[in-house]
Design brief:
Elements: E1 2-5, H1 12-15, E2 17-20, E3 30-40, H2 42-48, E4 66-74, E5 86-89, E6 104-108, E7 112-114, H3 121-124, H4 128-139, E8 148-151, H5 157-168, E9 172-177, H6 183-188, E10 193-196, H7 202-209, E11 215-220, H8 223-233, E12 234-242, H9 254-259, E13 263-266, H10 274-286, E14 295-300, H11 304-312, E15 318-322
Parallel strand pairs: 8-9, 8-11, 9-10, 11-12, 12-13, 14-15
Antiparallel strand pairs: 1-2, 3-4, 3-6, 3-15, 4-5, 5-7
Length: about 325
């Protein structure tokens, strides 16, 4: 099979190799997916780069955890009727060596989820890490029916999914965007109100919309930059669910958060409980027609280094490899 891999960490152009290798057979409880599209997430490029001094977990790694394609083989214990199913998959390179940047990938059967017929493979390849993270930010502390949620960075990969899933869960959703010109885009996702975070009266507007009470939950994309503002906006007993930060050791207003009895939930998608991932997968599939990602660029597998560079530049939209 055609595949991309690296055997040492470093810049994409220096360490990524594209070549031929044998396709693995699915093990017990696994399926093999003929990959049509491979989604690239920031975590994928961080794993390839020398991030946080982490050692190579395997001597050779095929990157990317998310993808979409067609099941072409099943392992022992898996119903052979699954052969031929269109699926999106997640976790292909989570505690595993070989991800979706290849013509074939093997994953546990439950991590290959039926892709609705109307959904393109490139969209399915974008669901995994962002969608599952978004589901956990919204529902990690229970039902949101009747609650007010603030989604920071609503047009990002996680934020977009969080808006859609929270609205479907019965929440009133306030969404932040970068500029006033993006407000309509966030409201188009279903957000009840969208606000430009750069506006000088942003916090006052949020508090006005909640009659001064504050929001019940915050989906946070920039913990270090926003934690003081989050404290001002969170309601008593609220939850700040965060999945990203620029500074690895940010300062926090400990006593003010304590007096509000705030829960801060830190979220790393590789280590969510499996049951939570499967709950998320069901919710994402049900919302698939509404959760549409803008695709910034599509690359063939031979240009994977360029694709990684596009992610590192902060492309406004998703970057995918089209493989089959």
């Amino acid at each position: 099979m055609r595949a991309a891999w690296y055997e040492q960490r470093g810049p994409a152009a220096d360490v990524l190799v594209v070549g031929d290798m044998s396709a693995s057979d699915p093990g017990s409880g696994e399926v093999r997916v003929r990959v049509h599209a491979s989604g690239i997430n920031p975590g994928d490029v961080k794993k390839r780069a020398p991030w946080l001094g982490m050692p190579m977990a395997y001597p050779r790694i095929i990157p990317h955890s998310d993808g979409a394609g067609v099941i072409d083989a099943v392992g022992a214990g898996v119903d052979s009727a699954r052969v031929g199913e269109r699926v999106w998959c997640f976790g292909a390179q989570s505690y595993r060596a070989f991800g979706t940047a290849a013509e074939f990938t093997c994953v546990p059967s439950e991590q290959a989820v039926v892709l609705p017929a109307a959904v393109e493979y490139v969209q399915g390849a974008c669901f995994g890490i962002p969608g599952i993270t978004a589901h956990r930010t919204v529902f990690g502390d229970g039902s949101v029916d009747g609650l007010t949620i603030l989604v920071r960075g609503a047009l990002g990969a996680v934020g977009r999914a969080a808006v859609v899933l929270a609205v479907r869960g019965g929440a009133r959703v306030l969404a932040t965007v970068r500029t006033a010109e993006e407000v309509a885009l966030a409201e188009g996702l279903g957000a009840h109100h969208a606000l430009a975070q750069s506006a000088p009266d942003f916090e006052r507007c949020v508090l006005d919309l909640t009659r001064g009470r504050g929001v019940d939950r915050i989906v946070e994309v920039a913990f270090d930059a926003n934690i003081h503002s989050d404290h001002d906006l969170i309601a008593q007993g609220g939850v700040i669910a965060t999945y990203a930060t620029m500074q690895s050791e940010p300062a926090i207003p400990f006593w003010p958060l304590l007096f509000k009895n705030v829960t801060v939930r830190f979220l790393g998608s590789d280590d969510f409980p499996l049951a939570a991932k499967l709950d998320a997968a069901r919710a994402i599939t049900a919302a698939a027609s509404e959760l549409v990602y803008p695709i910034a660029e599509r690359f063939p597998i031979e240009q994977i280094a360029r694709a990684h560079a596009a992610v590192e530049r902060g492309a406004r939209g998703r970057i995918v490899l089209e493989i089959a």
